[in-house]
Amino acid sequence: MSFALDGVGLTHANGFTALSGITLKAAQGERIALIGPSGAGKTSLLSVLGTALAPSIGTAEILDFGLFSPSTAAGKALRSRIGTVHQAPPLPGRQRVVTAVLAGKLGQWPAWKSLASLAYPLDVPGARAVLARVDLADKLFARCDQLSGGQLQRVGIARVLYQQPDLILADEPVSALDPTLALATIRLLIADAEARGATLVASLHAVDLALGNFSRIVGVKAGRIAFDLPAAEVGTPLLHDLYASEGEELPVQAHEPHFLLQSAANDAATRAACC
Amino acid sequence: MLLNPAARDPAARSRLIGALATLAVLWPLFQAAEVKPGVLFDPGNLKVIGNFLAGFLPPETGAEFLGYLGKATLETLAIATAGMALAFVLAVPLAYLASGAGREKTTLNPLTRSLLTLLRGIPELVWALVFVRVFGLGPAAGVLALGLTYGGMLAKVYAEILESVDAAPARALRHNGAGRPLAILYGLLPQASKELASYTVYRWECAIRASVVMGFVGAGGLGQLMDQAMKMLNGGEAASILLAFMVLVFSADGLSGWLRRALDTPPANRASPFGWRSSVLGLALAGSVVASFIFLEIDLKSLLTAEAARSIGEFIAGFFPPDLSADWLAKIGKGIWETLAISVVGTLLAAVAGLLLALPAWRAPFSFLLNTLRSVPELVWATITALAVGLGPFAGALALALHTTGVLGRLYAEALDNAPRPPSNALRLAGAPGGLAFLYGTLPGAAPQLIAYTLYRWEMNIRMAAILGFVGAGGLGQLLYFELSLFHHAQASTVIIAMLALSISVDQASAWLRRCMQ
């Protein structure tokens, strides 16, 4: 068992209910895509799985740990087995890429090694190897603020690859990448999970990316699970129902750059009209 | 692993060389500052300082003394406020001239910039010492000294703040035909106003501290009272004055915090940007400036008469030509080295202590400690550290370190608070212990600001180190105080030139270091 959520609800301090009645189980090694309109609760669900937020009600069992406290040694050990790819890569601008990648193992390394690695990176070949897998080996010693948004997102992915966690959580991991690179990166995450028998849960904006690569699709809507089906059984009516609030068209890969261009053009036009 | 070129860190060699070079520079400086931690715990010294501090209790509370204390407190406030008003009036046009903001072509403005350097480069205490000779003992010298130095500082920082915000809005306005003043008002000021206002308020806080210090050379206020109490080793009075002083600094701090928060309130839904609060504030501000000048009985006109001009002229003429004999220059060389050592050692000790005090998450007691350290000026600390370790540069370095720890600790705590949180949160989620999440996630984000604060503080400390000698803490100040009290103006003038040169080169060095760190 990789994780088991039973009747999980999450209510934020301001009274907003992000999740309610979520029951979701996954065996070790499963690969799941979360899809749903924005604001549906995908990120909240990933936060509960990543032990960043504790459920307000219900029980969450992650990697066979029940109630956990992040401050205990057991809590830290659990967290070091969970790797998260964040939507906005959480990398300090002035840190070097090599250090940012090695930081993935802070939870596993002894303290002396982590401290010494600040003065001299102690696993250059390891960092280079994972960066090569995201096509960034040449940026090993560059500083994070010299990288583009897409490159940073791939450094974030490289860090998780380096961490080698048992549970990979990915929150819109390819939102800053162009379609070709996005596809390659998703396949890389899947291949890594497959090779190590790790569980992968990724929230994705593009439906085609989810359906084409993941065996199990979980649709999330308004904080609840709308459906939980094998990819083959997810049909168009189901998707239209899921994205009912976002208009006729389903969000897919190929459309994204088109949308961006459109809105950028609009923006420039409005500005020109303004002045 | 290290022999394989592909696995080698290309930055390692330069890092190692940098570290060794730093050590090679710092070692002789620590020698020159005569750092002897052992002296701090020498039983004889401990006894002297213990007796003095024991005399602090109980603080003096006699009615007559409290009357003096009240008047001196008001005087200090008034000197600070009047001095800041003068500084502001000087700073706005100078900043406009010096800044590259809103210009289509970058210019260097060498004339204004060097005037600013001259104003800032000579410490306010030296200005005060000089003005006291011209206008006699009293607050007028303090107000003028504050106005000139702080005018220079404000102008420089205003100019830099305006240059540091996004220039695109102002450029767009200029391309549409707006003049430079309007481009600044409409394009840059909205972005910079909060920082400008908050820096001005912060400077006013500093002015209060500075006006206390100027009392030590006879420019009135709490400092003059403190000087008398210290000379008589009257611990009870000294304690009362220090307490009054801390209350003053804490309330100025509270007021400035409130003002800065008020700047964050979203605009009200009406045409005029000024509501009742800003009107009341504006009136209070104008009122307090006028009241300050009246309270201090400064007659601006009498300062601007032909006679005053003549006496200033005569006085200044006495400083020329400076004494450039080899003997004297050698003495000054030693003074410069000692002053540099005091400033570097003081700043470094403070950086370490400040960072340690800024780290704990449970802030309250540490904030109080930092505020206390900060509220006592370096010169007052120096009178105390001189008792603890004897006269000499180490006392100066310690005094500098104590005060600067308070300043840097507070700035560091703010910078660490403002550093982006996602990196360290992400590391914690991946199981990293808190300390390592800080080192890998928070510190890289905050480091540029920490370093910039430290270097800026070093620039200020070199000026302070130059005058700590006034109370016997070594360096150039000791030379200047000695020569001025003997009316050796030619020698004094060389010392002032040396101070100016030192502070200019430290500014340059600090700017260069900041560029290197980017």
Topology diagram in text:
The complex is a heterodimer of chains A (275) and B (518).
Chain A: E1 3-11, E2 17-26, E3 31-35, H1 42-49, E4 57-62, H2 73-79, E5 82-85, H3 97-102, H4 111-119, H5 124-133, H6 149-163, E6 167-171, H7 179-196, E7 199-203, H8 207-213, E8 216-221, E9 224-230, H9 236-242, H10 255-274
Parallel strand pairs in A: 3-7, 3-8, 5-6, 6-7
Antiparallel strand pairs in A: 1-2, 1-4, 8-9
Helix pairs in contact in A: 5-6
Chain B: H1 12-32, H2 37-40, H3 43-54, H4 63-98, H5 110-121, H6 124-135, H7 139-164, H8 168-175, H9 180-214, H10 222-231, H11 235-262, H12 276-295, H13 300-303, H14 306-317, H15 326-358, H16 364-375, H17 378-389, H18 393-418, H19 422-429, H20 434-468, H21 475-485, H22 489-517
Determine the mean pLDDT of chain A.
Answer: 84
- CATH architectural category of the largest domain in chain B: Orthogonal Bundle
> How many domain regions of chain A?
2
Structural class of chain B: mainly alpha
The biggest sheet of chain B amounts to: none
Cα end-to-end separation of chain A: 60 Å
CATH class of the largest domain in chain B: Mainly Alpha
CATH homologous superfamily descriptor of the largest domain in chain A: P-loop containing nucleotide triphosphate hydrolases
How far is the N terminus from the C terminus of chain B? 30 Å
User: Proportion of β residues of chain A?
Assistant: 15-25%
- Give the ordered list of helices and strands of chain A: EEEHEHEHHHHEHEHEEHH
Largest inter-chain contact set? A-B, 43 and 33 residues
